[in-house]
Amino acid sequence: MLTRHDLAKQLRVSTRTVSEWQQDRSIPYIKVGKVVLFYWPDVVSHLRDNYRVATATEATKEVG
């Protein structure tokens, strides 16, 4: 189980981004009382199932 800070570090995004994704329900989370936790295997699975990985060629086309 990861905290918001731990998940942000793992995904290399800000904690604010994690909070926004949580509010948008873009990533799964568990709330126990006032504590919000993220189960890493569920987060990875959800991201793989719902988002695609851009190739280096696709990323270059978007920038240029």
Q: Strands, helices and their partners?
A:
Elements: H1 4-11, H2 15-23, E1 30-32, E2 35-37, H3 40-50, H4 56-63
Helix pairs in contact: 1-2
Describe what you observe in this structure.
- There is one protein chain.
- Helices cover 56% and strands 9% of the residues.
- Strand 1 (30-32) and strand 2 (35-37) form a beta hairpin.
- The N and C termini lie far apart (39 Å).
- The protein has one domain (4-63).
- By secondary structure, it is mainly alpha-helical.
- Strands 1-2 form a two-stranded antiparallel sheet.
Features:
elongated, single chain, mainly alpha, 64 residues, 56% helix
Average predicted confidence as pLDDT: 88
Order of adjacent strands in the largest pleated sheet: 1-2
Structural class: mainly alpha
Helix % is 55-70%
As residue ranges, the low-confidence spans are: none
State the end-to-end CA separation: 39 Å
Give the C-alpha Rg: 14 Å
Number of helical segments?
4
**SSE order:** HHEEHH
Looking at the structure, what is the overall shape? elongated
Q: Characterize the largest beta sheet: strand count, sense, and whether it forms a barrel.
A: 2 strands, antiparallel
Strand content: 5-15%
Q: How many domains would you count in the coordinates?
A: 1
Summed up, what is this model?
The protein is mostly helical and 64 residues long. The protein has four helices and two strands; from the N terminus they run ααββαα.
